[in-house]
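Methods — Computational structure assignment.
A single polypeptide chain was analysed. Its primary sequence is given first, followed by the predicted tertiary structure written as structure tokens.
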Amino acid sequence: MTFKLFGIISLSLKEFAVAFLLLMIALSAGRYASAQSIPFLPPPFPENSPEEEIIAENDRAPPQIEILTTELHEGKNVFKVRIIDESSLRAREVKYVHNGQLRVDGLFRDQNNVYKALIDIQPPSRVVMVTASDANGNIVSDFGEYEITKSQDIFTLVMDRLSQTLDYFQNLFGW
């Protein structure tokens, strides 16, 4: 059995099925983006947050900061940290240099004591400092030093995706 496409291409059932399968795989492979997601609606400012303030009487230790972000790319990045303390946090901020100026952005609570900030970092900047203070006045700062990777242009991204798709088919069919 043969199919005639657009009145000019004649394909057997097997050729048509393989071509259709390749088209579906190529279309579905392009749906994944290599980017960081950001929330649709920003969380409320800390002043307007409905969280109840907890003050632990014997809390003399500063908050514990764990920086979760392992790499930064040139441009906008979602920066994640985990901050744990017995008392409520009063201040959470991230500092970095942007275009020669010190920039301070607030960290907003996500879940499981994870906090996020959208930062815009450009080389030669490479240090990001996180500061947190709790309701008892304990303050701590920690920093991460990063190698800022260059962002790829659209042509390179398309060529990489095409190369990955061709490699996939070569491995699948043994071409």
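Note: The first strand starts at residue 2 and ends at 5.
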